[in-house]
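Appendix B, Record 12. Input sequence as logged:
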Amino acid sequence: MQVITTTPDLESFCAALVDAPFITVDTEFMRERTYWSQLCLVQVASAEREAIIDPLADGLDLTPLLTLLANEQVIKVFHAARQDVEIFYKLMDVVPAPLFDTQVAAMACGYGDQIGYEPLVKAVTGEAIDKGSRFTDWSKRPLSDKQLTYALGDVTHLRDVYLALKGQLEKTGRLSWVEEEMNALLSEDLYFIKPENAWKRLKLRNVKRREIGPLMKVAEWREAEAQKRDVPRGRIIKDDTIYELSRQRPTTIKALGNCRSISKGYEASAQGKALLEAVQAGIDLPEEALPRLERQGNLPQVPADVLDMLRVLLKRQCEHHQVAPKLVASASDLETIARYDAPDVPAMKGWRQEIFGNAALDLKAGRLGLKLQDGNIEFIRLDS
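Logged structural output:
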């Protein structure tokens, strides 16, 4: 087992992978006490080589690895890529491409919604993975042989899973389905939250129009503070505090101190002053700078029976085509289809429309019905 702790060894290893058609990649990291993930290990494998890279080793320069990840001639294979790619995006300022996510591929191959790595390896290769080292503190050194073996297995088994899923996708003509999803994973917005967009993470169902500005600016301030100080958002202020401040809109130290979610003395601190400035900045936002939010009361009501029928149809169609429902239509898609006659959602486009979208419209229009056949639900055409 090769454990790389020096820059020359990393340069040599990465140089040997430049012409590889693909590499499998995984990371071990810690994030419980920080905003940014703390990279502790990187595991990389090609069809012929594998190694563990220790980014905590003194003097190790990760540039050769980052150059390899930026090489567009080499496919980077991950399982559930989001968190791993987020780490590399912060180091590289670009998203490693092209990507292949075996979790997404498994959804297109009938392995269910968001299957975990261990059950996917078991289902595809028959191999069982020892989970004993899963909750290791990967920042501590030295790491045991058992820990290193577990970590390396995350990329050696991934080789077999990738090749098997890719072969299945090519055989069934579904590789383009997965490539479409992979392209969506290249969006930089997935891996870095701009502070000015932090409000979009919050639930706004009961937020009044006058509260939106303060909520936006306080969320922006919190995100910037968390990034700058490298601490979790909740260590700055909680979500509930943002909602309370947007409702109360305090503009003085006394008013801030009267907010229930503000701890005693905080209002007079430098942080309290900055928080008041954020609230005031939100109050001062002009009307045209505020987003237009869809209000549930202004939308056509979702017919409950139609929505229930669409769920049944989606389940049936996905079982028939052996594809995960979550890959075909989201809960929001189903509500939109139930609500509107001409819904503009992903489920009504491309291969998703062929599998589900057209049938959904037929169901709404009364051209498709259902019956019980030997204890199973079957759909029948009603317009023939």
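The chain has a mean pLDDT of 93.
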